[in-house]
């Protein structure tokens, strides 16, 4: 089914456009070592990514995806500050684009779509990653996890993007790799496209019923055929 009459495409970042887990894991482990704790394999940290920096640190301190409710707040605050400092120094050292991302984004932009990013990553880290991976200037709007009072899966960032682009919800598509993206789209009554290769905590994204689901980013071109000019 072609997604027709769309004007704006909203993309998640981590796990959708960029494999940022190597740098996130490095910063997490530097933080844990700094605190006198044992580091974790990158594969473990991958399963903790996707809900923003605070949740990542809570999971790292808990050593599990399920957060320990007894963590002292002073420990959490200190660990988060240390993590953000470490991550700022390695934000794009080993991160890389997933296959076919840049060419597909450029093709979609050439077809007339306007592009934005809605991520749960702190906003200050987004531009350095885009610059480092050659994506600067492609996106008109960037909303981070700390840009608004709510983050995905809350629909507020999606509604905010619609208002900024001056389009209706029906004219937008949310594209991402995790349930947070699909649930945010559903809460906003927006169409969505899921990608299976990212960070979704080993859950089957199909359960959340995006309008389309692809294992290759290039699949977007099969359902987004470009903006039709008025006759």
Topology:
Layout: E1 8-11, E2 18-19, H1 21-34, H2 42-46, H3 53-62, H4 73-90, E3 96-97, H5 101-110, E4 114-118, H6 126-132, E5 141-143, H7 156-165, E6 172-176, H8 179-188, E7 191-195, E8 212-214, H9 220-223
Parallel strand pairs: 1-4, 1-6, 4-5, 6-7, 7-8
Antiparallel strand pairs: 2-3
Helix pairs in contact: 1-4, 3-4
Summarize the structure.
The protein has helices at 21-34, 42-46, 53-62, 73-90, 101-110, 126-132, 156-165, 179-188, 220-223, and strands at 8-11, 18-19, 96-97, 114-118, 141-143, 172-176, 191-195, 212-214.
Quote the average pLDDT.
95
Radius of gyration from CA coordinates: 18 Å
**Might you state the CATH topology name of the largest domain?**
Rossmann fold
SS element count, helices: 9
What's the CATH architecture of the largest domain?
Answer: 3-Layer(aba) Sandwich
CATH class of the largest domain: Alpha Beta
Strand order of the largest sheet: 5-4-1-6-7-8
Question: Portion of residues in helices?
Answer: 25-40%
CATH superfamily of the largest domain: HAD superfamily/HAD-like
How many DSSP-defined strands?
Answer: 8
SSE ordering: EEHHHHEHEHEHEHEEH
What does the largest sheet look like?
6 strands, parallel
Structural class: alpha/beta
Beta-strand share of residues: 5-15%
Organism: Marinomonas gallaica
Catalytic activity: 2-phosphoglycolate + H2O = glycolate + phosphate
Protein name: Phosphoglycolate phosphatase
InterPro entries: HAD-like_hydrolase_sf, HAD-like_sf, HAD-SF_hydro_IA, HAD_2, HAD_sf, PGP-like_dom2, PGPase_prok
């Amino acid at each position: 089914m072609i997604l027709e009459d769309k004007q704006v495409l909203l993309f998640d970042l981590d796990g959708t456009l960029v494999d940022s887990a190597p740098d996130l894991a490095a910063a997490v482990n530097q933080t844990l070592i700094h605190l006198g704790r044992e580091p974790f394999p990158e594969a473990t940290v991958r399963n903790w990514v996707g809900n923003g920096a605070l949740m990542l640190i809570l999971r790292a301190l808990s050593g599990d995806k399920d957060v320990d409710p007894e963590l002292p707040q002073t420990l959490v605050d200190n660990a988060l500050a240390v993590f953000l400092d470490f991550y700022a120094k390695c934000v794009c050292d080993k991160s890389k684009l997933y296959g076919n991302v840049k060419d597909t984004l450029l093709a979609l932009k050439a077809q007339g779509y306007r592009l934005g990013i809605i991520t749960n990553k702190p906003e200050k880290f987004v531009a350095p990653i885009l610059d480092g991976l050659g994506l600067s200037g492609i996106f008109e709007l960037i909303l981070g996890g700390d840009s608004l009072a709510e983050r995905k899966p809350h629909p507020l960032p999606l509604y905010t993007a619609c208002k900024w682009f001056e389009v209706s919800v029906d004219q937008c598509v949310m594209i991402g790799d995790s349930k947070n993206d699909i649930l945010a789209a559903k809460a906003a009554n927006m169409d969505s496209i899921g990608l299976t290769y990212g960070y979704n905590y080993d859950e089957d994204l199909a359960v959340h019923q995006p309008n389309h689901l692809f294992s290759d980013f290039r699949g977007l071109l099969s359902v987004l055929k470009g903006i039709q000019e008025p006759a």
